[in-house]
């Protein structure tokens, strides 16, 4: 499926052009929802709300960016809380606060991964505004970061970041289902920052476009947590599996570390079975941190996890933190005036 989508949406042509009436309808519905949300715009929440999302369907690196933003804020003394829809999970009750015992079946893979990697509170709720209000009632933090919520207009927001995969870009530039665009590129005029994963996109016009690089930072054994040096992959044949938005990027990262990769790609948020993880030999099986949280109980003893960290330029860090402080100051001033 991933290869098919790449060919249909991210190639030079538009083989699905006959579906343009549906693309037009999708755009009209999307714009109508956005206009309605802005007309009925609720009062802002009392703390800064940061939304990380994308205009294109599929993976772009939102979750690693969210984890990095959490780290930047924590370093400055903020107490961030991550909000998530919890795609792929189903809980008996919402809001759901993720902890060490929360399964991916309850919360979805990304919320569990983000909690384990950042240690900060993660609140899952398909109604993200409800999750946000609950997080504030519980006094979990003083800044909210919504992972993948650019089109979730019911949630008031102060800062928006749009993320693109530089290798894929905007694909054929058409809207869903002809192409990958969830919203037209004009939507970028309303976002605060554009972050491109893996390189710069010159066809995006935005005064604050920054390049993000996902750097491999660790290799750990899935069952024991034991670490191994990254250079232990050099020259080693490995079986790689990836159920993420762009598996090719993960396979390329392993190859850049010198591994001889045999890759097996699955759909994003794939629910792994033990048979998916069979290598047929004693060679090492390597997966992403996002996939690892779903495979802890079914993987064999040869399974390893490659961790990556998003690195961003200093200029982005300064501009982003300044914007957060500016929003916090404005919200505090408005709250003071109301009281």
Structural summary, described in words:
The protein has 339 residues and is α/β, with parallel strands linked by helices. The protein folds into 2 domains: 2-212 and 312-338, Rossmann fold; 215-311. It has 9 helices and 13 strands. It has helices spanning 2-9, 20-39, 62-75, 104-107, 109-118, 128-137, 247-256, 289-295, 314-338, and strands spanning 49-53, 80-84, 96-97, 122-124, 143-147, 159-165, 193-197, 209-221, 227-228, 237-242, 260-265, 284-288, 303-311. Strands 1, 2, 3, 4, 5, 6, 7, 8, 9, 10, 11, 12 and 13 form a 13-stranded mixed sheet that branches. α3 (62-75) packs parallel to α5 and α5 packs across α8. The termini are far apart.
How do the helices and strands line up, and which of them pair or pack?
Blueprint lengths: L1 H8 L10 H20 L9 E5 L8 H14 L4 E5 L11 E2 L6 H4 L1 H10 L3 E3 L3 H10 L5 E5 L11 E7 L27 E5 L11 E13 L5 E2 L8 E6 L4 H10 L3 E6 L18 E5 H7 L7 E9 L2 H25 L1
Parallel strand pairs: 1-5, 1-6, 2-4, 2-5, 6-7, 7-8, 10-11, 10-12, 12-13
Antiparallel strand pairs: 3-4, 8-9, 8-13
Helix pairs in contact: 3-5, 5-8
């Amino acid at each position: 499926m991933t290869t098919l989508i790449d060919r249909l949406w991210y190639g030079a042509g538009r083989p699905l052009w006959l579906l343009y009436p549906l693309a037009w309808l999708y755009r009209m519905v999307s714009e109508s929802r956005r206009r309605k949300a802005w007309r009925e715009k609720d009062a802002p929440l009392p703390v800064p709300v940061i939304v990380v999302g994308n205009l294109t369907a599929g993976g772009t690196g939102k979750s690693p960016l969210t984890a990095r933003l959490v780290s930047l804020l924590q370093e400055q003394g903020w107490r961030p809380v991550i909000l998530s829809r919890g795609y792929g999970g189903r809980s008996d009750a919402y809001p759901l606060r993720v902890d060490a015992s929360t399964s991916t079946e309850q919360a979805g893979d990304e919320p569990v991964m983000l909690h384990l990697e950042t240690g900060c509170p993660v609140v899952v709720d398909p109604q993200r505004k409800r999750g946000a209000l609950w997080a504030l009632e519980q006094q979990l933090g003083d800044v909210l970061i919504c992972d993948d919520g650019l089109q979730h207009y019911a949630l008031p927001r102060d800062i928006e970041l749009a993320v693109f995969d530089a290798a894929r870009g905007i694909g054929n530039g058409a809207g869903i289902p002809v192409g990958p665009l969830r919203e037209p590129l004009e939507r970028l005029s309303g976002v605060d920052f554009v972050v491109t994963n893996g390189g710069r996109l010159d066809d995006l016009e935005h005064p604050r476009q920054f390049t993000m690089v996902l750097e491999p930072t660790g290799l750990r054994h899935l069952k024991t947590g034991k670490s191994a040096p990254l250079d232990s992959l050099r020259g080693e044949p490995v079986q790689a599996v990836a159920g993420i938005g762009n598996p090719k990027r993960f396979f390329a990262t392993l190859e850049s570390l010198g591994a001889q990769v045999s890759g097996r790609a699955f759909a994003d948020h794939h629910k792994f079975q033990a048979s998916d993880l069979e290598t047929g030999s004693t060679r090492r099986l390597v997966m992403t941190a996002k996939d690892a949280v779903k495979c802890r109980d079914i993987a064999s003893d040869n399974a390893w996890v490659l961790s990556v960290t998003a690195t961003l330029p200093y200029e982005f860090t300064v501009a982003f933190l300044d914007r957060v402080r500016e929003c916090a100051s404005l919200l505090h001033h408005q709250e003071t005036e109301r009281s």
